[in-house]
């Protein structure tokens, strides 16, 4: 098994709430903040190594502060000071094993969700945590690992004015949408993998296939743990009348919600199919045992009586009249052929071969 | 397995929401719009190759614009412009793998549902997506594949005045009703197929039957994914007090809702029966293994001891008094018959044959 | 399997809603309406062959119009005209495969439910549909098949004044109560049948018993499809404040509701017991295979080594010193007895016999 | 199986509602009413053979009328007349197979619940129905069978003033509490029985243990049918703002409710453990079959080839050079030892012994 | 099985509610109360052997009264008198098998929950009950067993001013948080144990592993019984607008609630994995039986026919021409080699080895 069933937390139990502990891969490296500031007329892109370089917000502009790869505790603490974020929010940003959720604070919405990727070599689904803070004019996005998951959105912002005409809430929607769109690709890959497992099972039901099915069933458990809370998250974004989200953006959130429900439907179907494969495996093992038994039973049932007859005439009694008959040997061979043929015919009639 | 578990989407993840992508079979062909405009007194039928040919709406008339077979992106974009539809609605019309749903927009209701057909040769259930837009006086219906699913409704409109006396909402109901009525036929076909599988299982429980049961269980999963959301859709049409649907039409929608609940009941029963068949198969394999074992055990238990006795008197010891007896051979044969008969009687008493 | 899994509907899909189609056994026979008109002081009974003979309603009287055996379309159409019933109500009356439900119309309540009977010969549960219309002073009841299910209620009306002192709503309650009371009898019969199956399984677990359990499990599915919606029906009668049902009658409806919940409890228990029987069957087959294997293994393990020893001394080597010993034969027989006895003792100690 | 799956009801289906029918054991015996009338200062105890002897109620006193063992119809009818109880309440009092419930009437609360006892000899759980009527100053309790389940409460009333300081509602609570307290004892006994079954299964997995597990699983079904409705009952007593129950008594009812939820938790755990035992049994049968097969396969695989070799040198061909060799016999015996030892070593390496 | 399925209660059923009965380990020992009284500026720590030594409360200070190890009835009765607690609260404090719950009383909140620890030697999860009373300025915590579970919180109070700046409600939150943080450690240990079981199953699927899986599945049942009610408890603390809990503390309670939901997610995943292991075990037993059968069938199918042939030429008929042939023996040996090789090839082609 490649991954741990339960992720180790660095945090010592009993420490104060809001104590920042980093559970990611590369602690306390330098942070590379990407800043995009735009409105309908203009857009500018900046790379900052510290939030002290953050330029002041312009009126009528949207600011998007993006970070690829969590750098450790210090930059997150700085982020908290600059934007007055609650200590528990900072704690959740650094705890990369958090359940997807949305949390309304007086001045901002805090959203946690997961990017999911299928690794075809290890046949594993790996999750990358993404934290989002949505304010009046600002969106902050933190990605657990390096590599920008939102390249498509950056390109669309730079390429044309369409996306730039909407506010910060629409940008937040666009980031959620990009992640959910990726789930469809993931499900296709999972579906392909399951079909491949099914084919292997049909042609050669080895124990290796069983182990693969068992392993992938567990990967699907991870998928569930990520997608069901996301649905809850989106539904609460739609339901709660938070003023940070404008009515015209709600229509788009409803669209992502639709996609999420569709993904859940497909995911549960895949799970049912996987369970069906395990049942099929068990049944096919029973079937093959049955086949093996039939071969044994036919061989034994035919030859054991014949061997018994041969044994009789191998006995050394002095008085055994048949032994002296001219055609004794031929008669016995004929009798044996009759018995063997009769048993063969009997098994044929019972449908054993 | 005939169909893919998860349908490939053409759309590149990360593209802008509302970007139209066509996932159907024949992209950018010419559209053949069918227009029916009617009131109690008159009805006229028109075929349009472009919506630019669309005549203006008459007061006190209902307009039904029907399209059989999605023609690609351009005609749908035109439709969106002519009727001022939201870009996300257009996107959903072209995405033919959408979950059934109803969506209330300020001026119209957008409904997505599925026509289902059972293909007896491949024993598959295939879905065709249908999109419906209901406006004050207009109904737009888009069918995924060629061939008009609503021929019956067209005939009733042309044949008599009854249906023409109601408004656009009743027409929308009539289209939903036509599709749900077809589900009953589908369930009958599924039921017949399952009974046939049951008969095959009873007469000859081969692995081919097992594969068929397994395959059809998966087809039923598709059915569920279509019918449960339809129930939700109809229930929300009934519950929400949308002014586009008149109270007298609600009684008819309640009737389709009843049918849908009945269909779900029957479908779940069929699923239970199918699951029961799999259990029955497994039990019957165990049973047959047990039968095979009994044959083997009886043959071996009877003849192995007898062969042992024959083996004893086949030994070549110089001093073996029995070998010289006059009736030694006859006595041993008699002993063997007693042992064999005794074992046969014992197995009979245990109910093995 | 005696019955079809899914009932064929006569209706062509796509026909107009409210089109009357008869799915019963004897279409368009003559209708025999039974009319009972009563109040505290008097009661009169009439048989009508047509509703044109229906006498006018008397003030302060309750009218009960009862029909045993659906006669086909024409009399139901006449009923609709006389009492101004909605076409969809008439359609449901004739569709004898309807799900139990209650439907509130402005002037009447329309109720559909099922009489259930256990047929001991075919071990099947058969349903008869009953439709009820409750108006201010009138109750109409339609029974699918001939034979009056409400004989008891008729007798009580004729016999004494008690039941005649209540209104039409109490009469409707009495009809529902008569049907639900019959469910208790049905459950007793089902329980007896299941206990009998259990006894058969305990004494002789043949495949015939398995088929019977499997078959009855399916009959129980039918039971569920009828009883759960009935509970919903009764609960909605209790909850909705329909003026047609007086408060003092509600106490009685709560009593039927109690009975219905009790019936569901018992039914689910029976289903659990049936499922347990299937598990028990599978386990007992495994057990018996294990027993069979033990017999085979003991016979083979004891006699195969002995036969081998006999085989050794049946070899024809010229130099085999043991063959010439005086007590060689006796020694070998003793050795064989020791080996056989040792193996027997070993199997005994392992608890195999 | 000791008890009937479904209890026979004496009542003829179709009889009038409120018709009193007695389903208990000893119909129409004489009733022995126990009357306790008390307030903080005094308490008096009376035995009445008829309710005509009932003394008038004293102001500021609580009256408790208790009956152990249902005497039949007549005394219950008398009770109904004296206290103006609804006929359906009387019917439910006599129907001793009723589901636990609470029913609010204008002047009183009617409560039905069950005393449960574990009979260690037959390993059965038996239920005794208890009906309770709570009025302003009066509590009536009817117990199905002789023997007072409320001896403890009587003792506490007679012993000290504590319980006498509360009203009739507290007395009703005390009776419910006494029954629920007894459920804890029952669960301990069930738990002990299940642990004993588990031990038997571990040491000797015979079919008798299987039958016991199967039987006790059914007893637990009865337990569920009694305890889940009791929880509903208590929750509705807590929720509904019935003036008969004072706020200070509600705190105590919440305590019984807590106990009931705890009992349900434990009960469901016991059910899970029982189901686990059945799975364990099935697995252990498979395991033992596997063990048996290994013994057979090793015996047969070792001795069948050896017997074949012996058979070769038992053939009577005239030209068989080995037979004349000086050490032929010894060589063949050595070869046999090698083959046998090699197979033994092979099976050892595969972990078969 | 190490622990009892159902804990014995000391209390005699039927005793008065609020009767204090001690179900813990060391009844009526001396109590060692720990008192911490603090505000932002100062903190003092006191050890009391009796509550008579309790100093009066200071204004603007928080008092925390902690007890490690339940001492028996008398000190709890004293606690009840000093703080005017309801008798039922005292009863629940002493009943150490209580379900986690929160109970609002007019002047205080009463909370019951469990500390859980994994004991690696016996592979058991053991629970310690903790009772909490939250008043305006006071927190009382009772721990079932000696050893302070809240050492971390004590240290944080003594070490710095942060925690001392909040009120009694925040202290109560910090205690809940300390326990929930410990659950994460427990889940890691459970996860490690399950992975170890999985590895054992993969390398050597013995019955000992089966027993371990079965045993740990039961331990997980205990976990569920503790964690699901805790979620309910926290959710009701969040939902109910109790004035004892200030709005700024609610944000922190939401954080513990998040953790609890995360723990439930992980716990249910672990349960699914454990169930999967049992299925895997059953399948692997079937697989191994199949392997064993193949070995037996191949050995028997190859050697039984050969032995039969040898048996034929071991017969003593006087007229058996083959016996006199020069190359008879060689021919027969060649025939046997052909038959054996052919069967071997056949089994190879069927994939048996
Ligand atoms: Mg993994
Ligand atoms: Mg925390
Ligand atoms: Mg947090
Ligand atoms: Mg992660
Ligand atoms: Mg990552
Ligand atoms: Mg999207
Ligand atoms: Mg398919
Ligand atoms: Mg989109
Ligand atoms: Mg969409
Ligand atoms: Mg489609
Ligand atoms: Mg199609
Ligand atoms: Mg229809
Ligand atoms: Mg209808
Ligand atoms: Mg199963
Ligand atoms: Mg049937
Ligand atoms: Mg219709
Ligand atoms: Mg019917
Ligand atoms: Mg009928
Ligand atoms: Mg009744
Ligand atoms: Mg019983
Ligand atoms: Mg009744
Ligand atoms: Mg009743
Ligand atoms: Mg009883
Ligand atoms: Mg109690
Ligand atoms: Mg334990
Ligand atoms: Mg109590
Ligand atoms: Mg309590
Ligand atoms: Mg404890
Ligand atoms: Mg402890
Ligand atoms: Mg915490
Ligand atoms: Mg299972």
From TrEMBL, chains A, B, C, D, E:
Keywords for this protein: Cell membrane, Ion transport, Magnesium, Membrane, Transmembrane, Transmembrane helix, Transport
Transmembrane segments: 295-315, 327-347
GO molecular function (one): cobalt ion binding
Gene Ontology cellular-component annotations: plasma membrane
Keyword Ribosomal protein attached: no
Subcellular location: Cell membrane; Membrane
Gene3D superfamilies according to UniProt: CorA soluble domain-like, Magnesium transport protein CorA, transmembrane region
InterPro entries: CorA_cytoplasmic_dom, CorA_TM1_TM2, Mg/Co-transport_prot_CorA, MgTranspt_CorA/ZnTranspt_ZntB
Annotated membrane topology: Multi-pass membrane protein
Main localisation: membrane
KW Endoplasmic reticulum (keyword) present: no
Function statement: Mediates influx of magnesium ions.
PANTHER family, per database record: CORA FAMILY METAL ION TRANSPORTER (EUROFUNG) (PTHR46494:SF1)
Family statement drawn from the similarity comment of this UniProt entry: Belongs to the CorA metal ion transporter (MIT) (TC 1.A.35) family.
NCBIfam families, per database record: corA
Protein name per the record: Magnesium transport protein CorA
Organism of this sequence: Alkalimonas amylolytica
């Amino acid at each position: 098994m490649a991954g741990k069933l339960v992720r180790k937390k660095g945090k010592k139990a009993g420490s104060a709430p809001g104590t920042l502990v980093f559970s990611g891969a590369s602690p306390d490296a330098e942070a590379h903040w990407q800043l995009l500031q735009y409105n309908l007329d203009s857009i500018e892109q900046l790379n900052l190594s510290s939030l002290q370089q953050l330029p002041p917000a312009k009126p009528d502009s949207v600011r998007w502060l993006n970070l690829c790869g969590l750098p450790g505790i210090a930059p997150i603490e700085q982020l908290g000071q600059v934007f007055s974020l609650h200590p528990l929010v900072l704690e959740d940003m650094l705890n990369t094993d958090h359940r997807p959720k949305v949390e309304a604070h007086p001045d901002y919405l805090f959203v946690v969700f997961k990017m999911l990727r299928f690794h075809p070599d290890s046949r594993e689904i790996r999750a990358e945590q993404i934290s989002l803070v949505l304010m009046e004019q600002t969106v902050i996005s933190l990605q657990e690992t390096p590599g920008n998951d939102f390249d498509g959105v950056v390109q669309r912002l730079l390429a044309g004015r369409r996306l730039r005409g909407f506010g910060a809430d629409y940008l937040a929607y666009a980031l959620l949408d990009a992640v959910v769109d990726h789930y469809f690709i993931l499900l296709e890959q999972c579906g392909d993998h399951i079909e491949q497992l099914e084919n292997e099972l049909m042609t050669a039901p080895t124990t290796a296939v069983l182990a693969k099915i068992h392993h992938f069933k567990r990967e699907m458990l991870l998928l569930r743990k990520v997608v069901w809370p996301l649905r809850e998250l989106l539904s609460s974004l739609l339901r709660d009348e938070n003023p940070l989200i404008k009515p015209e953006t709600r229509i788009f959130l409803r669209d992502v919600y639709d996609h999420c429900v569709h993904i859940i439907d497909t995911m549960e179907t895949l799970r049912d199919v996987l369970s069906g494969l395990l049942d099929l495996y068990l049944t096919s093992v029973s079937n093959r045992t049955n086949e093996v038994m039939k071969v044994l039973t036919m061989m034994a049932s035919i030859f054991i009586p014949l061997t018994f007859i041969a044994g009789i005439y191998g006995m050394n009694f002095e008085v055994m009249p048949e032994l002296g008959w001219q055609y004794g040997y031929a008669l016995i061979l004929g009798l044996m052929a009759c018995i063997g043929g009769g048993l063969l015919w009997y098994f044929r009639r019972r449908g054993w071969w």
